[in-house]
Amino acid sequence: MSTDYRPMWQELGLDLEAHDALLGVLGPLYAKTFLSQPERPEGMGYFNFVMSEVHGLRIRELMDHKAQGGFVVGTFCTFVPEELVLAAGGICVGLCAGAEWSTPEVDALLPRTTCALIKGAFGFASARVCPYLAASDLVVGENTCDGKKKAWESFGRFVKDLHVMDMPQVKNATGRTLLREQYGVLLERLEKLGGRKVDSEGLEAAIATVNAKRQALARLNTLRQAVPAPISGLDALLVQQVSFYDDPVRFTASVNALCEELEDRVRQGRGVHSGTRPRLLMSGCPMAVPNWKLPAIVEEAGAIIVGEESCIGSRGLRNEVRQGAGTLPAQLDALTERYFTIDCAIFSPNPERQGHVVKMSSAQKADGVIHFSLPFCTPYQSEALRMEPELEAGGLPVLRIDTDYSPEDAGQLATRVEAFLERLEA
Fold first, then answer.
1. pLDDT value at position 386?
2. In what order do the strands lie in the sheet containing 279-284?
3. pTM to 2 decimals?
4. What pLDDT sits at residue 217?
5. C-beta separation of 183 from 321 below 8 A
6. CB count, 10 Å around CB of 115?
7. Comparing C-alpha atoms, which of 5, 81, 23 is closest to residue 289?
8. Which phi and psi angles does 347 have, rounded to 5°?
9. What is the structure's pLDDT at 105?
10. Contacts of 307 (CB under 8 A, 6+ apart)
11. Torsion over CA of 282, 340, 188 and 252, rounded to 10 degrees?
12. Can you tell me whether residue 81 is helix, strand or coil?
């Protein structure tokens, strides 16, 4: 970062020493993971810039927005509609949760068998090193898994304002009604925060903005179907991670510019690696920044990741909100219709997800699937136990991996991934 943002971080209440230590780790990790890749598209330069200023310029933009009467909403989940936040005059940002940052306070609040994502969120919050959390006027928690349901009871001490959104667990009429009601309650909370009522015109514009972002990401993932792949899995994952932080209009334009470059590559038959490399689909838990450990191991082992079936991936961008609904109640119905299609593992039963893995593997020309779960993430671990034998029986090889954010098991993971690739090549 070329600008000194320390006064801003101090004003936000960050622990400057701890935050400096965090940035001191993230910078070299990013350079090692991303900047050393061969044949990177020039369009990734924008995303390099975003990451270099992810705790700087972007936070300054959030603070300027607040100074002009706007507000910031922090979230952890794709079930929180960005459309509602934008329509109410806010900016929606993802919160820090993708690294291990334990403190004695977190250890006292959470059971040992809590998943790494929840521990990471609590660690960043208690250590005061996440400027997005510090800048948020409202944090929206969602009652998805049991871990999060109980975590919100303690997380409120770290934030200015916490709104907990209840979630259906079954996809039926009752579940849909619950989600629709919760989106109505959230809209009222956002209107109060923004100091104005949301009208149908404003919500329609917000829906169009978020739909355009999803279209750009879908365009990127379609280009990854090419052989050879025009972009690495690591870079594609980075783009999708940035989508949770960046300005949506600017982000959409940058992704479309990247896609134009990738389309030229596809026409030229040019890829980041040769077309003989094994092509893999990543499936399972979300990978929040800076959780790049497993994808880096996979691609260093000689494979190319061609898709992510996760919340930071196809699950979060699939299906657009129906536009032109007309009235505000009809628009809320359309939002519910779209978000209720998300095949998160919190739902039981959840057969749509396995079907999507099969369909996506075929579209992306994947030779196999790596199913990633965070330890103690019961929903995704349970689905993996069922999915693995059924996908294998259908001719789609699967490697199940449970790992947290720690680098301690990197060598063991590399050995397992290499053995899986040998199996695919055989």
1. 94
2. 304-309, 279-284, 368-373, 398-402
3. 0.96
4. 98
5. no
6. 23
7. 23
8. -80, 140
9. 85
10. 221, 224, 281, 282, 313, 314, 360, 361, 363, 364, 366
11. 50
12. coil
Q: How many CB atoms lie within 10 A of CB 153?
A: 12
Cα–Cα distance, 149 to 320 (Å, whole number): 28
Instruction: Tell me the C-alpha distance between 72 and 139, whole Å.
Output: 9
Tokens (6 digits) for 345: 């593992």
The stretches of 88-199 forming alpha helices (DSSP H) are 104-109, 116-127, 131-135, 146-155, 173-194
Q: Which one-letter amino acid corresponds to residue 76? A: F
Q: For residue 102, what pLDDT is reported? A: 72
Question: Two tokens at 285?
Answer: 């838990």
Separation of alpha carbons 402 and 71, rounded Å: 37
Residue partners of 111: CB distance under 8 A and separation at least 6: none
Q: How high is the pLDDT of residue 337?
A: 98
Please list, in sequence order, all residues whose beta carbon lies within 8 angstroms of the beta carbon of residue 301, skipping any fewer than 6 positions away. Answer: 414, 417, 418, 421
Rounded Cα gap, residues 298 and 276, in angstroms: 15
Within a 13 Å sphere around the CA of 65, how many CA atoms are in the beta-carbon half? 21
On the 0-12 / 13-18 / 19+ scale of CB atoms within 10 A, 152 is middle
Whether the Cβ atoms of residue 238 and residue 299 lie closer than 8 Å to each other: no
Cis peptide before 38 (omega within 30 of 0): no
Phi/psi of residue 101, each to 5°? Answer: -145, 75
Q: How far apart, in Å, are the Cα atoms of 170 and each of 175, 314, 348, 361?
A: 6, 21, 6, 26
Tokens 């783009």 found at: 239
> Looking at residue 61, what is its pLDDT?
98
- Within 158-307, where are the H helices? 173-194, 200-223, 233-242, 248-268, 293-300
Give CA–CA dist 320/215, Å, rounded: 8
How many Cα atoms within 13 Å fall on the side-chain side of residue 95?
30
129/289 Cα distance (integer angstroms): 14
Could you say which DSSP state residue 159 is in? S
Provide the pLDDT for residue 426. 86
Rounded distance between C-alpha atoms, residue 381 and residue 363, angstroms: 25
Element (H, E) at 378: helix 378-393
- Which of the residues in the chain have pLDDT under 50? none
Looking at this protein, which amino acid is placed at residue 361?
A: S
Indicate the residue type of 10: Q
